[in-house]
Amino acid sequence: MAGAGIAPSGTFTGYAAIGEREDLQDIIYDISPMDTPFMSNAGRGRASAVFHEWQTDELAAASATNAQLEGDDYSADTATPTVRLGNYTQISAKAPRVTGTLRAVNTAGRRDELSYQIAKRGRELKRDIESALLGAQAATAGSAATSGARTLAGMACWLWDNQVQKDGGTAATTPAVTSGAPTTAPTSGSAATFVEADLKSIVKQCWDNGGNPTVIMAGSFNKQIASGFSGIGTQFRDVQPSEVMPGSIVGAADIYISDFGQHQIVANRFMPTDDVYALDMEYFEVAYLRPIQQEDLAKTGDSDRKLLIAEYTLCAKEPKSSGKIYNVTTS
After folding, report:
1. What is the pTM of this model?
2. How far apart are CA 321 and CA 214, in angstroms?
């Protein structure tokens, strides 16, 4: 019967042959995510010192009883000084190093190994920066010690004015900063589920303080939670009607319309997964002391080295414009 038994005696098969060429595709596949929504939407600024500073101010509360006597003699209103805030610049770097031999051999998927490693590390550096900007680390001035690297205060440290604190047991805390940089990181409590009332509350708080949080940023789990909010009514996608295929099921919401305007719901892979941010992007800037750049490192042997480096900080121009819901569940 065909296919039964073994090959006839003396048949030379591929199992024993020497010299078959390998079948290796000349491409390298990588699905690692590269989207950095915050950096892509925030302003870009320039820092000129390792401690980048700015000022905030606010008007006195509106008064419905500001009625004055005709011909009265007025005393001066008491002036309120501005608030001076700041953040430290953080240095992030990658240093690819490749031997002369590896640069000389014939490699699949890339012409030169060092060039490939430079491009790869550059993408990694951009992801690291997004993570630092949105993280919960506190600001530190740093020192010359081995463990004394300067760190910027991430987004989670700046949003202390407008917040919804989820508390499934132990309360979380966010430090209030009246001047300078946030030098204490927020603490986590017992997580509770993100609900629509939280989103309505944080948007209202921001609006009451003068903000317009047009971007709601969350991790994957809580992005899906937001898509299920009943108040959305109709599911919206940021596409033209002609782009939706017949029979499509739209199961996600990109736009949430509240009493205070329209808010884009954005998923971010590189933010704390137990936070949801309500951001007025007009008031955030990435300030660079040194933009991402490539430098040659000294050749100390049979290898070539490059340095990819950036020095930057998060400038939260007016923290009251935005807010956060924190201590939410992540699964």
Report:
1. 0.86
2. 10
